[in-house]
């Protein structure tokens, strides 16, 4: 994505013009790409991610999904730096077990979200470079989506896209699920089949325009019966 | 080691060292880092220092982390906002927009920047979203502990001092918090054992508030103004039991002066603390100040105050790119805080355009009359 950081002070693109000697320090972060999306319905939640793991110009893997199952009612999607994603999910799983052993019950989606916020903020000065989205069912059985920033600020939404193609997908979701900026339209609640179809269409569009998104799409559908997975192929180029 | 001395390389921080909070005078609240404080929910991890420094002399400021240069972060945190708070004869108004932006992208168009701490205190947050959210949680926790230990609520000034002291060790790092504490101080907040009596009196207060709200909505000139009691307020009140007013204290509070009454305080992560009548923070604050300075007077009615705050946020969102979407408004009085329904400002722009068109039509008619 072209951002203002790509252009130097003289208006020329930094990558293609000599702008003076640059000192390269070791950076502990890398960007591994990937897009994650979550949608909350009346009695279901969807968490979807692509399965491409890339770095710079190379693809490390075409089969590295970014959704991780935490409990029977909660799935987390993590995109950004893959090393931090793996460590963060290990830490969350360990904390879930600790909670289960001390409190004799599983963590609810809201509790997991609050806990993740404190875990992320504990690393305020050396953050986990991960964009998290938690999708699951709340205590009343309604769908819940919690979206995070890398340092732990979070809130509950009905839909959210995160990762490399998030800026392309979020406006589309605002329009189709949130009915924003549409007039004279009947605002029906989203059914599960329509939501799954919408997510598939949206990822196909993202794969068209974002180089870091593609290969395959994995959707986790969370209902009170459990978690069901669907895999859909995407562009591999 | 010899090489370390030659290079003036400073010893690295322990990777798992908890944050060095406050000096020992505050020992009853915070423990020193090496007594593992299991009560504290936060143990901040600091990365080992990469740069060597010329001077190794420890200074008084070594309890802050300004010497640490953080790794270059590949992402931006959310900033940019308009929040305001002011006091007047009938309480405090706190208002804010709802846009959270990250350097050009709007991360969240419906964030909540005004967070209630307890029944009589609300904090307007601006700066980095995560910092504000988490520090507000820490502040709420500390205030609740204070209330339980000392059987009275901490005043707004006290809360400001507490927050400022908690943020001080982080001065120089990129923690960015600009919090405006808006609340009502009252000496009546004693926790009473007669909870039954308190719930009965609370019902009376709620009745009075409901009558207030209908009166206001009748008077309002603008379309959809509604004042609704916050649902959470009841839970907060039940928890604290501390908002009961008997007749004597109600009379005392109605005369402003001394240690009770409306208050507004600003605390910044740089260490700045301000007290005043009118405070606005954020990228849209110059525009908000312009509107507020024009219309504020101590003797305003609630309706005028609400309208003023709303107008100030509306104008700021119009001129400032980083503010927008909706406006949230809270009104705090001696009885507690009330929240106005969140209003989408997009509609207001269309209404304003209609009003302008009306005016132009009126003027055209006037001109025709004088000519003809």
TrEMBL record, chain A:
Coiled coil: none annotated. The lineage of its organism: Eukaryota, Metazoa, Chordata, Craniata, Vertebrata. CDD domains: proteasome_beta_type_1 (cd03757). Component of the proteasome, a multicatalytic proteinase complex which is characterized by its ability to cleave peptides with Arg, Phe, Tyr, Leu, and Glu adjacent to the leaving group at neutral or slightly basic pH. The proteasome has an ATP-dependent proteolytic activity. Keywords: Cytoplasm, Nucleus, Proteasome. Its main location: cytoplasm. This is Proteasome subunit beta. The keyword Cytoplasm applies. The keyword Signal does not apply. Belongs to the peptidase T1B family. It is found in: Cytoplasm; Nucleus. GO terms for biological process: proteolysis involved in protein catabolic process. GO terms for cellular component: cytoplasm; nucleus; proteasome core complex. SUPFAM superfamilies: N-terminal nucleophile aminohydrolases (Ntn hydrolases). InterPro entries: Ntn_hydrolases_N (IPR029055), Proteasome_bsu_CS (IPR016050), Proteasome_sua/b (IPR001353), Proteasome_suB-type (IPR023333). Component of the proteasome complex.
UniProtKB/TrEMBL annotation, chain B:
It comes from the Eukaryota. Residues 351-372 are annotated as: Disordered. It is found in: Nucleus. GO terms for cellular component: cytoplasm; nucleus; proteasome core complex. SUPFAM superfamilies: N-terminal nucleophile aminohydrolases (Ntn hydrolases). Keywords: Cytoplasm, Proteasome. Gene3D superfamilies: Glutamine Phosphoribosylpyrophosphate, subunit 1, domain 1. Its main location: nucleus. One of its GO terms (biological process) is proteolysis involved in protein catabolic process. PANTHER family: METALLOPROTEASE TLDD (PTHR32194), PROTEASOME SUBUNIT BETA (PTHR32194:SF15). This is Proteasome subunit beta.
